[in-house]
# Entry
Amino acid sequence: MKPCSVAGVDVSKLQLDVCTRPADAVSSVPNDLDGIHRLIRQFQQDNVQLVCVESTGGLEALLVRQLHEAGIPVAVVNPRQIRDFAKALGRLAKTDRLDALTIALFAEKIEPQPTPPRSENAEKLRALTTRRDQVRRLLTQEQNRLDRTADKLVRKLIEKALGFYQKQLQTLDKEIAQVLEADEELQATARIVQSVPGIGATTAALLVAELPELGSITRGQVAALVGVAPRNRDSGTMRGKRTTGGGRKSLRCALFMPTLVAARYNPVIQAFYRHLLNQGKAKMTALIACMRKLLVILNSLVKSQTSWTPTPQTS
# Structure
């Protein structure tokens, strides 16, 4: 049996550049089914115990799915983590092969947690919610253009586009509901999430799709994943301002309006929000803290498989 090794894969539209550590063996295969199967056979031959890839917005999806089916653990990481790791090593040059080497070294030294596999319904739900968010943004853009346009022909074309996107949004909402209805596990999680005052059906579906870790991680981990965990900026006797950021930006954006609603109608979040304001916290700081508390509550409820009560467990 060969000693265990790890691999880093730099993903592009047409090609996968691969580096295996500790041998630093670098190779390339096409980013298609045949190329990935060749790669999997090589990983099995080299006794690769962890594959690390960057999240590229979907280009890595086929590779990740095939690795899961082959039983090879794969960690999908934020590209920013890899960039910061490369800077710490003093590696400023950038090529596909150098990126693969850096990702492999990251996997070896940092040992990121493998990304859990998604069911077929979970993958479909994620694709649908992603498209819904895209269509919603397009609707906002077209509406803004309509408000600034005086030409009758251009207004007519924009109105036609608005009608098309509105129909597509309705279709997506129906498809999302059907996917949730067809999957008992996803439906159960969505029902628990939606039981919390402030969380609607759209946000519940997005959380189920984009935060599959919900209920299986700690309160600190869920806050860090979404990017609402406060980060210290202290040095010596200096105490810097705490900041948040990183994580899954799409979830932070999606949770902003539900947090506003919860701060008004959810008794627990409302009391917490008022307490922070009374302490002199800025409104935005208080809202981010409320978003974090809302996530912690959701994580606890899904973990215990219980719906919202006026005094939920948050630990």
Observations:
- The chain has a mean pLDDT of 88.
- Residues 125 and 176 are 6 Å apart (CA to CA).
